[in-house]
Fold this protein.
Amino acid sequence: MTTEVQEHPWEAPLDEAYWQALLQQEEQAPPAPEVHDMEEWPEILIPGEGAVAGPDYEMGRRSLRESPDGHFDDARDEQWRWLHELYDKREVTNARVIGCNKGGLLVRLGACIGFVPASQLVNVPECLGTEELRGELEAMVGQEIQVKLIELDRSRNRIICSERATAWSDDEITARLEALQPGQVIRGEVRSLCEFGAFIDLGGIDGLIHISELSWERVGHPRDVLEVGQEVEVYVLNVDPAQRRIGLSLKRLQPDPWMLVEERYQVGDVIDVVITNVVDFGAFAKVPEGVEGLIHISELAEGHFLHARNVVQEGDRVSARILNIDPEGRRLGLSLRQV
């Protein structure tokens, strides 16, 4: 069952740049070369700080070195036709894990290399986004898994696969996606946490709560707000059926604190704040409603001082005067000097 939440002006839809930023963080995957281009990807495909490679790596290189000259282009075209057929028909194929990096697994797809983000494994490691993840991924090198292609872009040599998608039928996925609309409130279960957000199981398909959508307050890590296995109510921000992406939010189920600040305070009021961050140009301070305002270095104190830390430290509780309130720009100007 779903309920509608009234749309607010500040609820801007997520654009493609947002999703591209998430993909870069989640997948940790540069473009995937064909096997004969492996020299271009040494930091990923050979053992070292960034990756672990299995025995198939050298086998692939050796077989290509022995191939006749001039056959690479035809072979490449044939491989990509096969990949597009798999993608268009949403077919399941077997893929051998030949290596890993800090974001997921490298798999052999014919003469090409695909990437399986850790979040797209059937058994998603609870250590997603931590140092322990690499150990779990290394243990899978040499195994054969079943995958579906979920993103294919020859111009970028990009082949993204999912093991988890093999557990769903296309009809089921399509029906679930079509049933979701921006503005709905639905329930789900936290499936995994990583540095940039939380993946929520919505009953066969996953949605993502970006870290910026977890709370109106600053969040250091998603585990500070959620834990794996927790049931949560989430707000649907964005649904992209073509890319099978669902953007979710927790914070938009709560009142926008910037609106509360505008209602409760006026320029000139003196309020109690907590210093949250001290920087070269001043200090940030949190007001009771949870939003942060800036005390510019010129408003910290009278006289001369070398750095803002000579006046305040993180955690200090101080009284500050409100200089300006801009809820639309999400800016709050404060002063200690004028108290």
In short: Confidence is low (pLDDT under 50) at residues 1-70. The domain at 257-335 is CATH 2.40.50.140 (OB fold (Dihydrolipoamide Acetyltransferase, E2P)). The chain has three domains: 3-10+181-253, 31-167, 257-335. The longest strand covers residues 184-194.
